[in-house]
Amino acid sequence: MSVTGHPTIVPVVLCGGTGSRLWPLSREGFPKQFWPLLSRNSMLQDTVNRARGTAFASPLVVCNEAHRFLVAEQLRDAGIAEPRIVLEPVARNSAPAIAAAALLAHEADPQALLWLMAADAAIADTDALHAALSKAAAAARAGRIVAFGMKPTAPETGYGYIEAGAPLSGLDGVSAIASFVEKPDLATARTYLEDGRHLWNSGMFVATAATLIAELEQLAPEVLAAVRAAVQGATRDLDFVRLDATSFAGAPDISIDYAVMEKTGQSAVVPASLGWSDVGSWAALWEVAPKDEAGNVAQGKVELYDARNCYVRSEGMLTGVVGLKDAVIVVTDDAVLAMHRDRAQDVKKLLEQLKANGHKEATEHRRMYRPWGHYEGLIKGDRFQVKKISVKPGAKLSLQKHFHRAEHWVVVAGTAIVERDAERIMLRENESIYLPLGCVHRMENPGMIPLTLIEVQSGSYLGEDDIVRFEDTYGRA
């Protein structure tokens, strides 16, 4: 996209969601925006890739502090140069996140043009997106806060709607907003589909930093005050901007729709057909994914017999389906979801039940990601457990010790340098080392390929919180 003669557009990507209706794939520890749901790239990578070219600055990404290294790694893998990653110490919905982005952009340029978007939406037609963005940018430079309204293709009850008003004079393809409408019932959604005035609220907006700050000052001053204090108290750490935790926690938990868009006199909407979906459920993912001649979506190691209009995904285990229609089956290494496609919205209720009953699978995957790589549990028994650990080239774990467990490391691929008290030992494939309880130790991958090892822990307590860190490359306590 090229916007000759106009200010550079700053993509602002909101990356704090948990994607709870896409359980068991999406979980708090590794939400849907980090998964490759529709292409080889993750949804975050697909999102930032839509903002490539001379018209765009490097993205500003607002994310949960717990996901900071996932975000940084995925942006690096996508070839994004010098992104700014803003860390939310607590979740406070979209209005505080957008306020932080606007204040930070305003420091460099009060008239910076911000394109605000979620990290986890699907858009099929990038050319149409950029055409709509050009119209929105023109209106934003005139002082508007512009929403992207998606022309509905079905009577969708899972989306909010925007009612378009009269066209705005001098702004091609841009209309006033007559009203915002909550998620309707099916009968109402059918009337919206027919009347041509109602559009799906995509959650994408374009505005200048100055306009956003002015409207927040007038309409949500308590949000702006708390976030301004959080930005003023922010610290810079590696690629990250750490907002002050106490100040940010004082911001109201409120969306930008409620805080600003439903109250402002500066709102506008660009109607567009982009092949957009929020991919908020397995049914929505079935809608946008390529299908076979029987209407099935099959991903992974899946075999179907006499199945129709099903979504079946396996993350490794062979999954066979016979004679089902309109079903969703999702298989991970530690959980299985099976349901009728019409019940896709109820996954969130199931997840609440899983949490209430103490199932750790509700929020955690067996594979746990860390800034140096990842680990996954293989076997757990009485006073022992076995893990597989992968360390990225050039990465190292923290210098640490444990009070309740000893560890035995066996290298199965790559090379490791191990610090054990005063020793520094190199291990190659099929070599091992014993780390007695209480010893100070660290592992590093000095090589050019990932380091893989098997860790056997033994002791009276094997929790991840049995750790004392003396030194850490990644600033963890």
TrEMBL record:
<dbReference type="GO" id="GO:0000271">
    <property type="term" value="P:polysaccharide biosynthetic process"/>
</dbReference>
<dbReference type="GO" id="GO:0016853">
    <property type="term" value="F:isomerase activity"/>
</dbReference>
<dbReference type="Pfam" id="PF22640">
    <property type="entry name" value="ManC_GMP_beta-helix"/>
</dbReference>
<protein>
    <recommendedName>
        <fullName>mannose-1-phosphate guanylyltransferase</fullName>
        <ecNumber>2.7.7.13</ecNumber>
    </recommendedName>
</protein>
<feature type="domain" description="MannoseP isomerase/GMP-like beta-helix">
    <location>
        <begin position="306"/>
        <end position="354"/>
    </location>
</feature>
<keyword id="KW-0547">Nucleotide-binding</keyword>
<feature type="domain" description="Nucleotidyl transferase">
    <location>
        <begin position="11"/>
        <end position="293"/>
    </location>
</feature>
<comment type="similarity">
    <text>Belongs to the mannose-6-phosphate isomerase type 2 family.</text>
</comment>
<dbReference type="InterPro" id="IPR029044">
    <property type="entry name" value="Nucleotide-diphossugar_trans"/>
</dbReference>
<dbReference type="InterPro" id="IPR054566">
    <property type="entry name" value="ManC/GMP-like_b-helix"/>
</dbReference>
<keyword id="KW-0342">GTP-binding</keyword>
<keyword id="KW-0808">Transferase</keyword>
<dbReference type="Pfam" id="PF01050">
    <property type="entry name" value="MannoseP_isomer"/>
</dbReference>
<dbReference type="InterPro" id="IPR006375">
    <property type="entry name" value="Man1P_GuaTrfase/Man6P_Isoase"/>
</dbReference>
<keyword id="KW-0413">Isomerase</keyword>
<dbReference type="GO" id="GO:0004475">
    <property type="term" value="F:mannose-1-phosphate guanylyltransferase (GTP) activity"/>
</dbReference>
<dbReference type="GO" id="GO:0005525">
    <property type="term" value="F:GTP binding"/>
</dbReference>
<dbReference type="InterPro" id="IPR001538">
    <property type="entry name" value="Man6P_isomerase-2_C"/>
</dbReference>
<dbReference type="InterPro" id="IPR005835">
    <property type="entry name" value="NTP_transferase_dom"/>
</dbReference>
<keyword id="KW-0548">Nucleotidyltransferase</keyword>
<dbReference type="GO" id="GO:0009298">
    <property type="term" value="P:GDP-mannose biosynthetic process"/>
</dbReference>
<dbReference type="InterPro" id="IPR011051">
    <property type="entry name" value="RmlC_Cupin_sf"/>
</dbReference>
<dbReference type="InterPro" id="IPR051161">
    <property type="entry name" value="Mannose-6P_isomerase_type2"/>
</dbReference>
<dbReference type="Pfam" id="PF00483">
    <property type="entry name" value="NTP_transferase"/>
</dbReference>
<dbReference type="InterPro" id="IPR049577">
    <property type="entry name" value="GMPP_N"/>
</dbReference>
<feature type="domain" description="Mannose-6-phosphate isomerase type II C-terminal">
    <location>
        <begin position="358"/>
        <end position="472"/>
    </location>
</feature>
<dbReference type="InterPro" id="IPR014710">
    <property type="entry name" value="RmlC-like_jellyroll"/>
</dbReference>
